Amino acid sequence: MLQSAGTPETPKETKLTLSVTYPSVENPAGKDFTYDITIRNEADTERVVNLRAQIPPLWRAYFTPRWQTDTRITSLKIGANSSDTVRFVVTPPVGVDQGEYPLVFTAQADSDFASLSLKAVVTGTYDLRLAAEAEVSGQGDTRNIRAVAGKERVFTLYLWNAGTAPLTNLSFYATKPAGWEVTFEPDKMEELQPLSLTLKPEKVTVKIKPAARAIPGDYTVTLTAAAPQDRKQMDLRVTVGASMGWGWVGVGVVVVVVAGLTGIFVRLGRR
After folding, report:
1. Contact, 39 vs 16, CB < 8 A?
2. Which CATH number fits domain 128-241: 3.40.50.10810, 2.40.50.140, 2.60.40.10, 2.40.50.100?
3. CA 116, 120, 124 angle in degrees (round to 5)?
């Protein structure tokens, strides 16, 4: 006699549902990924809903009420046939690789359980840095350098990428006084990899030539390194001294004046 196999058990219908408007969020490494999740209690009674999350190793996560982001929670009460929204905040470590990372948000009330699959897309960071060789003195936003009118002054500019993703299509230019010349070698760079990969900064030769008749004194030259992803500037206070040519002109003038005075005194003495 054959026995009936019976009717398969129907999965229990949960009275707890989850929804989110933006299940995939993109951010640089080290920045928070935020998801506003609506939880609906479809039961006829008020219930306490416990919150949990599954995240990658070394990541951090917490929950807050949507409008009280300074309060962290692990559960909340939701009224009968009502809904509420919680904020799910996830922070990856600063050095995390670029890529897509799965996250799972879960909620449980009594025997009802619901989960929501989310995605964190980690992009690279960009952080262009500039420094000048030791002969260029000063700290902070302005550096000091000496030059001579009409003479070329050469120094080395160092640059590196303190971020996690390559900088591309860098170009170099300067804001300078009229009649001055500023050049860069090279004046363009296709790519600047993160310093963590190269372990050394790149070098750019900077040549500054004040105008031939520049009056001795202090002038400002601004050097700029720019990429589509980031840009940095360095201000140089260029102290210009008189050229040797003008020095000899001055000496000549003094000699002429002294000679003239000497001639006058000689003539007067004969009288």
Report:
1. yes
2. 2.60.40.10
3. 180
Q: Give the model confidence (pLDDT) of 167-205 as tens digits.
A: 999 999 999 999 999 999 999 999 999 898 888 999 999
At 248 the three-state DSSP class reads: helix
CA 31 to centroid of chain Cα atoms: 12
SS3 of 9, please?
Answer: coil
Adjacent-strand bridge partners of 189 = 170
Cis peptide before 28 (omega within 30 of 0): no
Q: Cβ(207)–Cβ(219) under 8 Å?
A: no
User: What CA–CA distance (Å, rounded) separates 222 from 215?
Assistant: 19
| 89: pLDDT strictly greater than 60 | yes
Distance (Å, rounded) from C-alpha 167 to C-alpha 161?
7
> pLDDT tens for residues 123-147?
888 899 999 886 676 665 678 999 9
Phi, psi of 95 (to 5 degrees): -90, 15
Q: 39 and 85 in contact (C-beta within 8 Å)? A: yes
At residue 131, the 3 state secondary structure works out as strand
Burial class (CB in 10 A: 0-12, 13-18, 19+), 176: buried
